[in-house]
Amino acid sequence: MAGPDAVQAPEPAVRLRGIWKTYSGGVQANRGIDLAVRAGSIHGLLGENGAGKSTLMKVLFGLVSPTRGGIELSGRKVRFGSPADALEARVGMVQQHFSLIPDFTVTQNLILGNEPTTRFGRLALRAAAARIQELSDRYGFRIDPNARVADMSVGARQRVEILKILHRGAEVLILDEPTAALTPQESAELHGVLRTLREQGRTVIFISHKLAEVIDLCDRVTVLRDGEVVGEREIGPEHRGPGPDRDAVERDLARMMVGRDLPAGPGRPHAPGAPVLILSGATDGGALAPIDMEVRGGEIVGLAGVEGNGQNELIELILGIRGCASGRILLNGTDVTRWPVDRRLRAGIGHIAEDRQSAALVMSMPVAENALLGYQNQPRFHRRGRWLSVQRIRDFAAELVRRFDVRTPSVRVTASSLSGGNQQKLVVGRELARRPSLIVAAQPTRGLDLAATSFVHEELDELRADGRGVLLVSLDLTEIMTLSDRILVVSGGAMVGSARPSEVDEETLGLWMTRGRTDRTGSVEAAAT
Question: How many domains does the chain have?
Answer without folding.
Answer: 2
